[in-house]
Give the backbone structure.
Amino acid sequence: MTKNKLIGPFVQLLTMDKLPLKGGLKDSQLEIIPNGGVVVCDGKIVRTGNFDQLYSAYSGRLTVDHIEGAMVGMPGMIDSHTHICWAGSRANDYSQRLAGKSYPEITQSGGGIGDTVSKTRAATSDELEAVLAERATTHLKNGVTTIEVKSGYCLNTIGEVKLLEVIRKANQKLAVDLIPTCLAAHIKPSDFQGSPSDYLARVVIELLPEIKHRGLSKRIDIFIDKGAFTSEEARVYLKQAKQMGFELVIHGEQFTAGGVAVACELGAASVDHLEAIKDQEIQLLAASNVIPVALPGASLGLGCQFAPARKLLDAGCSLAIGSDWNPGSAPMGDLLLQTAILGIFEKMTSAESLAGITIRAAMALGLNDRGILKKGFLADMIGFPVSDSREILYHQGSLKPSAAWKRGAIFKAGEKGITGKQEKGWYFENGSFSR
Ligand code: NIG
Ligand code: FE
């Protein structure tokens, strides 16, 4: 009995294959297979090509996920930057921002990250798992099949381990893949007696070995900016983390300079934010292998400028796009909408925008098994109910996928009340999936 399954036909299949990792992209570089199909076995892609030819080639020795009506297929979206494991709400911060207060001002007056830390410390693991699962499910419904998730809202050893354990547990249950990152270096918590360097030293001594021991995360993030950590403090911390074998990521140049130089010097996987980046740092990035990640959701949440995506691409940089979904600066959590808005303001081609949430996002996470529809890659795919791939960004995020495949298993919009197998529906009224 063959286990091969043919998915299709797609009016257009956008593979995202054969694109350079760095620099600007033209839409003519997009590989589009008309009347496309994808053959899948054990969760991986075996072949892509013309649907009818694939069907004949296997002379019926496969099952078919037959698509009714017009659909454009592409790789599942990858969100390379989120903070979706938190408790509480920061609607109060937002209303203060609407009234003209800045993000750093609100942080200094008792709101900001510290407020979420109090609420997240007080929440149980079960409560956190439930809100994380709900947000991850929303992302899957919107076509995101891999989600990076940061800790960073407990800021002590016991709490950060709690968050990373919650992320691990949710990952075991959910259909989407959650990629955990330790962001214990978000800010120095207000109850820590000592300097920021003392706090980071404590993280190195207490928390990082525990993360290693439990196998909770391979990635370490730090927020380098005014009100968080300085470049000097970060350098010491990151060097130690690197020596312990962690991959490095940096929140940098959101408000002030510093993060990009550290990222390039220490060979970070990515440097994220960059709303305040200057020409000199753009040149540094272009000469490095560090992937810049734009977070348009934070610009929309704070009402500030976008990262200069066009300039970065024109300088020869790569560019991934993440949602930064978090309770403070980026509460929206709609990656496609944010990508479409960044694209129209920054004049990014469809190829550049879509690469930023597929293959280039995969590279930012160091994942070389997804983000392209190609032999050997994971069968993580989404389908939009249209016949022209240009419709995807044209609707500015209001067009949602009507189906998603995670490792070849289908999730369809509109089916409800199914609590068991992922093949039967992608959104359940009780909000839980099983693998
Ligand atoms: O990426 N910039 C630092 N951290 C988050 C915000 C977290 C929060 O406000 O809760 C960000 O924007
Ligand atoms: Fe962030």
Observations:
- Residues 81, 83, 251, 324, 326 surround fe (iii) ion (ligand 2) (CB under 6 Å).
